[in-house]
Amino acid sequence: MSKPSIILLASITIALGGVCGSALSAQPVGHALQNQPAFNAIAAFETAEGRFAADGRATALYQPAFRATLRGSAESMAREFMSARAAQLGIASSPATLATAYQRNDGGFSVVRFQQTLDGVPVYGSDIAVSVKADGEVIFVSSEARPSIEAIPLQPARDADDVRKQVVQVFGTPSAADVLAPRLMVYADTQPTRLAWVYVIRDAQKAGEWEIVADAGSGEILDYRNTEYYVDGTATVFDPDPLTTATATYGTGGLTDANDADSAGLTAQLISVTLRDITQSAGVYKLEGPWARCQDWAAPSGGVNDCPTPTTPDFSVTRADQKFEGPNVYFLIDKQMRYLNQTLGVTVVPNSVAGGVRFDPHGFNGDDNSSFSSGSDQLQFGEGGVDDAEDADVILHELGHGLHDWITNGGLSQVEGLSEGVGDYFASSYNRSTGHWTPADPQWFWMFHWDGHNQYWGGRVTNWNIGHTYPGNIGSSIHTQGQYWASCNLIAWVAVGRDAMDKAMLLGLAMTSGSSSQKAAAQAIINAAAASGYTASQINGLASAYNTSCGYNVTVPALPDLIFKHGFENP
Questions:
Q1: Are 488 and 552 in contact (CB under 8 A)?
Q2: Residue 371: is its pLDDT beyond 70?
Q3: Residues 214, 163: contact at Cβ < 8 Å?
Q4: pLDDT of residue 208
């Protein structure tokens, strides 16, 4: 059994149409529309310099060999690069201009993200991320620039509401609700260039949130994507799960799901924890804090079990009680978000909402599925087999999709299963950090310790690099491919430690965009680590994992005391 992930991209900087196909489990009803291929999802060729489209324009530059002549702000130096390399990026003759969409500063470098605009109207999907050090050196570039933009009239022939009526009828979702307000955008993924309305909708009869691009005059649907990320399984708020804390296998000592029943063995694995910064209001306590927030929006809904509101601050119940999952998801998300943002000092928070990561601990109408939606920045967890919200691996895997989406300001990539691997990496990083399993245990290399590796489904592994080679022999599905990415980075995790690897992962992903491959992401991570002051030993650890163990063949940034250029050469 494999757990499908479905990805709908509600951010204008994402172009992931290529992940649809077998990943789509809920196609719109009553029409034969086909979503467009991802604009930059698969580069035509790759060299040591970077990745390039068929027309020769760069979609990624691994080490651009550029230093700004004038020292100034990160934005000004990034703009100097864009001006100098416009032809290389395929935008030299474009009528569009570049607007600064987002900037993050990560100590050793800044990532400046640009978006193409035509007379102030943004171009759909046109995310360009330029990573620049304070001395003006550009160390990584990832580009979704649209090279073939035509100057067109920018006054829509029909308003958003009028076009929407046609769109939802054709799309087969007449009862859909808007998740985000419609946006007027220029669509240049096909020719001729069109003026379009972009909608993000959710339909009560269909799983997922759908981003739909429609011509602002004819109403023709030009593109659509499902933006939710799914993992079939359950999640618990044991820390991290009852099998890990018991160092036991499923089915021993009463450690079975047994239709969500209690057992002495499971109750013995419950850990008393502090729920930090919950809310007290109108005489009750709520699972609402600065880093996590329980909300009941998905079926089954309407009861008090999803997000319990006791009159005392004690939420303690056993796992057979439906009030169990909410507090445990809150604890795990809150703990992980505090660790990343406060302990590691990497700012990574939801893009569209403030006040914590939204989650529904009982969603999908009880089905065995879990998801993260980039349109609403929400997580929901199903209940088939082992409840998804009882396994930290599922919870942190779904949160991992969110981290990937947020750190790139909506530029998440699922090329070669990258984001699936990101989710598996962060879940495994946390499980290993609890110290229960050792490298001598098979479970050291497991994903979904409690939710999988049982009669419900087989789970996944994180030693997938053994017996597989990149890029052609890592699997055919995004989940199998993601195992390779997670495995390679967990080798580096052993070499440099959890804190350093988790931080490098986030800083490197911040440089990437919607078409980044595993190799591109690996190059970004090692570049980010070098720019952030990682030691020669740590860079060697990354290089060895990426080049010796996994065959990414990244270029290792030059450091004064770097011993091994690629992690395998003799000194």
A1: yes
A2: yes
A3: yes
A4: 64
Which of 436, 421, 434 minimizes the C-alpha distance to 509? 421
Q: Are strands 357-360 and 378-381 parallel, antiparallel or unpaired?
A: parallel
* pLDDT at residue 5, rounded to an integer: 36
Sequential DSSP letters for 14-39: ---GGG-GGG-S-PPTT----PPPPS
Summarize the confidence of residues 336-352 as an average pLDDT: 95
Q: Which of 434, 409, 420, 247 is nearest to 339 (CA)?
A: 434
Lowest mean pLDDT among 26-35, 70-79, 313-322, 390-399: 26-35
Beta bridge partners of 117: 97, 122
Residues 6+ apart with CB under 8 A from 26: 6, 206, 207, 208, 226
Do residues 196 and 339 touch, judged by C-beta distance below 8 A? no
Instruction: pLDDT band for 203, please (50, 70, 90 cuts).
Output: confident
Angle between helices 392-407 and 325-338 (to 10 degrees): 40
Longest dimension (CA), the chain: 70
Spatial distance between the Cα atoms of 292 and 227, rounded to a whole number of angstroms: 21
pLDDT digit string, tens, across residues 132-155? 999 999 999 999 999 999 999 999
328, 274 in Cβ contact below 8 A? no
Domain ranges (residues) in the chain: 45-143
CA distance 90 to 149: 11
Instruction: Give per-residue burial for 398-418: e unless 16+ CB within 10 Å, then b.
Output: bbbbbbbbbbbbbbbbbbbbb
Q: Say how far apart CA 460 and CA 490 lie, in whole Å.
A: 14
Per the prediction, the chain carries an average pLDDT of: 88
Token digits of residue 556 = 């290792």
Count of CB atoms situated within 10 Å of the CB of 455: 11
Question: From CA 16, how far away is CA 13, in angstroms rounded?
Answer: 10
Contact between residue 74 and residue 110 where contact means Cβ atoms under 8 Å apart: yes
- Using the predicted structure, report yes or no on whether residue 44 has a pLDDT greater than 80: no
Cβ–Cβ contacts within 10 Å for residue 180, how many? 16
Q: What gap in Å lies between CA 545 and CA 492, rounded to an integer?
A: 5
DSSP 388-430: TTB-HHHHHHHHHHHHHHHHTTS----GGGHHHHHHHHHHHHH
Per-residue tokens: 338: 């505090």
Q: Which residue has the higher pLDDT, 82 or 273?
A: 82
CA-to-CA separations, 146 to 39, 96, 224, in angstroms, rounded:
8, 9, 18
